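User: quick one - fold this with magnesium ion bound?
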Amino acid sequence: MNLQTDLASIPGIGLKFSARLKKLGIKTVKDLLWHFPFRYEDYTKIVPIGELAINQSATIKGQIHQISTRRTWKKNLLITEAIIVDETGGIKAVWFNQPYVNNILREGNYYNFAGKVTGSKREIYLASPSYEPIEARGETKHTAGLIPIYPETRGLTSKGLRYLIKPILKNLEPIEDFIPEEILKENKFPDINLALKRIHFPLQAMDAENAKKRFAFENLFLLQLNNLKIRSRLAEKKTAPIKITQDEIPKIIGQLPFQLTNSQKISLEEIMADIQHPHPMNRLLQGDVGSGKTVIAAIAAILAAKNDLQAVFMAPTEVLAGQHYRTITKTFDKFNKGIALLTANKSELDYGDKLNAKISKNKLLKEIESGNVKIIVGTHAVIQKGVKFNNLSLAIVDEQHRFGVAQRAALANQSNQEISPHFLSMSATPIPRTLSLTVFGDLDLSTITELPAGRKEIITKIVAPENRLKAYAFIREQVKKGRQTFVICPRIEPGAVKEGEILTEAKKKALELKSVKEEFEKLSTKIFPDLKVVMLHGKMKGKEKDQIMKDFQDKKYDILVSTSVIEVGVDVPNATIMMIEGAERFGLAQLYQFRGRVGRGEHQSFCLLFTDSDSENVQTRLNYLLTAKNGFELAEKDLLIRGPGQFLGQEQTGLPDVAMDALKDIQLVKVSRDAAKNVLSNDPELKNYPALATKFSEFQKEIHLE
Ligand code: ADP
Ligand code: MG
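Assistant: Sure. Structure tokens for the protein plus magnesium ion:
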């Protein structure tokens, strides 16, 4: 038997069972063995029945005095009950809908039972315990030692899985370990064969820990190899160097209406140092919302254009693309090399003379292909078929975590295989350190650590339901002073209830969520009938959204009610209140982004978090937003609470769970990085590690990084 063996071909696995396994995607021995327990029950001690306490997980040893099965008429459940007795007392064991237990267990015989003591003060019982005849075999699968508990799935019990896995582990041909031996030794990791045994059947807690660590390490190690490979491959690729002369930088910066902050300067220098090389840059520019990333990227684009090379600036939404386009054309007024806006609905071109503002899409595409346009700002539209660049040398991607790896690759490969543009991505979601060392480990980092001078701290408050009216009064006061307000809601339309529909708790919750339309109605007609209220959501057309955003920026409205579409990047310095409905529905990183929409001008700004939830969890989580010193701190918290998914592009979340967990372990991350470096520095092609080479190429395909 080996890892590829089809489970259906193993004697003893019934058709029904293998069908259930298949539903879980478990077809081969390998699939099954890599279906890891998620926890272990410690049944190491046999507890006298007389000493059992409620809520305890325990193993008992006793004789069955009586066993029977009955049907409850209320819930139509089959209940099997047994009375188990030892010298110290007796206890009932109960199984639900497992009538076969009644046929297996015999009155008068002795068994081990393991399970949780449940019930009330009045009466306790063992709930669906595992059982095993005593003296049947020397070895026990179910009731002695640490018992693996697998994620419960319909028709597949932990017990069933244990029965299945144990003999397979015994009969399996030894597996060749792809982790080099020296790495195993150095880190005291069990080899693959031992690790598999121990993760399913640990003798003690440490065994399971070590085995888990080893599997987590595997994924990190492969990720690190991948990062280093990407780095070295990029270093081999060519790109047009962007030449920069000494005197041109002060000239460009001189056009800005402000002084760059220190860390903006440092980031700009790091970028300039990279793009002068004939090999592509691959850099992530991160900085808090409002820290001024756009202008740094724009300067890099201008530098490319001055070299008669093209730069593309890709934003996640039409609103943002339009905003960037306007910023660049406005700020660098005297620059007349051709700046274009290209989105699904819009094509504009600006040669500095403002004569060519509107242009048909086809014409614009020709201008891009001919190389007349130097800077192209847009959405996904810029990587769609039909867009051909003439000499793309710099690709900038704003809020890059929103883009999948594939899209990044599409931009990078626009030209051809040997030539790849410089790549600059930007993100206001600070990437936790473990992630920047792993998933984003192929990138160099520049960080803007400070906000432009004069920004005031945003006063953040969690508002209890009873203080809602006070909050509205406060908003009115601010509007009277000339300020504007954002209101963010988690949904677009009020949830509809079908006739006769039974409301689940989840559905009730969803219904209670403030929807944009409802909230807009309420605010515009009841609460603020005298103020100018407008609504914005993702189902609107790009044009419409742009117009609303522009009008809001131009102070034509006082209050903008919106979904999370305004989450990223939008700049309205006059807005001073960010009010968030259903705040518990959003992740910390996202709330942080919302808050960053205000506090961009000279006025004191406020963030009001509304929640009807008084759950301690929610309150604690929201409180982080009040106390965290910076985005990094929040990002680390969010990573622990919600996992790494939200920091990654969609394509990247294909990582297995163990890998996702491992992404939280900084020590292991560092170890994996060193290990990968060592291996590659001695043997860049992995010639001496054939098993590793094979595994690595499989891994690359799996996570779509190829
Ligand atoms: P983000 O990093 O969130 O993308 P932006 O680039 O949108 O931030 O910048 C936010 C605002 O700050 C913009 O209005 C921009 O013009 C302004 N800004 C950028 N850098 C500075 C600076 N050094 N001093 C003052 N204002 C700045
Ligand atoms: Mg931005």
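One thing worth noting: Residues 293-294, 398, 569 surround magnesium ion (ligand 2) (CB under 6 Å).
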